[in-house]
């Protein structure tokens, strides 16, 4: 679970503490941040932390995310100081909101982030401007904002934009100026939606304990009451394998790296190695059921208090490690694969040719009356002269490259009209197959703003028709 940490650089924070004349509110906040970072890495050494700093270009930004305790502790000493000229002329909330949006773009949707802000809480009486920055809707629900206020429960005027911008907002009263470790412990209690990074993987009679990076979040599945579980963790049940080419465009909402987790059963490490080698050698993915359960020791298997969450798959990532991808809640993940009777390793079909790229033979065929929209006509293809597989499976940026290509080609119309219409049709078709209405709507709303006003009417009609838009 990623953490963003920022210290308010209000000039009043240079005041000395009433309980310690040798330490200012700002220095006290720095000590709390160091305690919080230590707690985070003690609880989960793979959690990512980023602290708000001033870049060499005199810009405020969150430092590179890191799971290194020592590196993060050193960065705390580089927090922008209240008496720096840039801090004196820059409004804290403006810089913070800009930096949060930039940091959030590095993560997938459903990746819950904690934003911790420390402030002296001094009650300034400066009215805020009417043109406050607004966090986009798709971000405000994915971030928990926790303000540690050293002057009481009232949020100061200058931090009001945070309260209005984040749905999950908490103001922690630290007027008593308690010890740093105690304050850090209280912040950790806001992690109620977090799942232990340790998960149990089960493949037939084999099992292994693994860690998911970063720590998963139960927030996307709001119907799950996490309090029913003692140290909740995921249980991954691999029940079959699919060829990578047959995956098409799975509705992924989040993705995690899987690494071996130390336990008493050393065979678990070998299980993960064999799985990685098998997926890599056979070009397959392992389809899994994903459950939530109370934590168990090692890779023990128990069905007590277990609840199904969603489906997903395990695949080989570009950096030669296992990657676990989650589908969304109530996802009809295999609807576009077509009907099939068996879902198993190709080794179960002895005596039969179950997979042949040249002959287009697969153990999981799409029905003959269906047109598999995720296979597109192409002259240059490794699967014959008529078809080419197009997939976003191993692309960490999903459809971003295809969408960006469309808008780049927009600027070169009408010279690149044929190529542009082909790419637009391909991307819209893939989005429709996936049922990704948000993507099609986003393309339709942005496309008119990228088209040249000098474009002739006939070309404009073709563009609107391909984008499934009505010509006004």
Automatic annotation (TrEMBL):
Taxonomic lineage: Eukaryota, Metazoa, Spiralia, Lophotrochozoa, Platyhelminthes
Domain of life of the organism encoding this protein: Eukaryota
Full protein name: IntS14_C domain-containing protein
UniProt GO BP: snRNA 3'-end processing
One Pfam family in the UniProt entry: IntS14_C
Gene Ontology CC entries for this record: integrator complex
Residue ranges annotated for the Integrator complex subunit 14 C-terminal domain, each copy included: 392-447
Species this chain originates from: Rodentolepis nana
